[in-house]
Write a structure and sequence with these properties.
Blueprint (H helix, E strand, L loop, with lengths): L22 H51 L21 H4 L1 H4 L13 H5 L3 E3 L24 E5 L10 E6 L4 E5 L5
Antiparallel strand pairs: 1-2, 2-3, 3-4
């Protein structure tokens, strides 16, 4: 049994229930939406930048664990290696080559905010080569001998964390990582 189709009289579509939007109303809605996007977009970008910086800091903490493993295998003596290198093709002992077996994953050497330097050089971090060959229990950096909490071991190569351009992430000799004022003025 089939039912006949329901038909509406043409006059029903002219009722207030079927009123169409005018061009002005559509433009106002588009303008309001554009304004909302313009207000929200910078906040989203800032949140993404903060998340990348936090991941970078987490990677430095992971590298701190890698250093601890290295130290345990080498009588608590920090490695002698270059602070950085120009490219991965340079035959120098560097952070990513010396600690790779302890880190396990090459991605830990690249900060998420670093868009080019890490890929070219193998790491996004400078090593404090002044500490190379020193025993962890008797560190001396610029006369600081009694405060490993103030002795940087690794530091971001650039200030690429957009939410705090005057700060870079550091890994300190006591094993903690943090975002600190830059060590050297540009």
């Amino acid at each position: 049994m089939t039912h006949p189709p329901i038909r509406f009289p043409a006059s029903d579509f002219r009722s207030p229930l079927f009123k169409a939007f005018t061009l002005v109303e559509i433009l106002v809605v588009i303008g309001v939406l554009a304004l909302l996007v313009a207000l929200v977009f910078p906040a989203v970008q800032s949140g993404v930048a903060r998340a990348e910086s936090a991941r970078c800091l987490g990677q430095l903490k992971s590298l701190g664990v890698s250093f601890s493993s290295y130290l345990a295998d080498h009588e608590m003596t920090l490695p002698v290696m270059a602070a950085a290198r120009v490219s991965k093709t340079e035959d120098l002992p560097a952070l990513d080559t010396v600690l790779m077996s302890y880190a396990g994953d090459a991605r830990v050497f690249i900060c998420p905010s670093d868009r080019e330097i890490g890929a070219r050089t193998g790491t996004s971090y400078f090593y404090n080569s002044a500490l190379g060959g020193q025993s962890l229990v008797a560190l001396n950096f610029l006369g600081i001998t009694d405060a490993p909490i103030r002795i940087p071991v690794l530091v971001d190569k650039e200030g690429w964390h957009k939410h705090s351009a005057s700060r870079v992430n550091h890994l300190f000799a006591d094993g903690h990582a943090g975002s600190q004022l830059r060590l050297f003025a540009e």
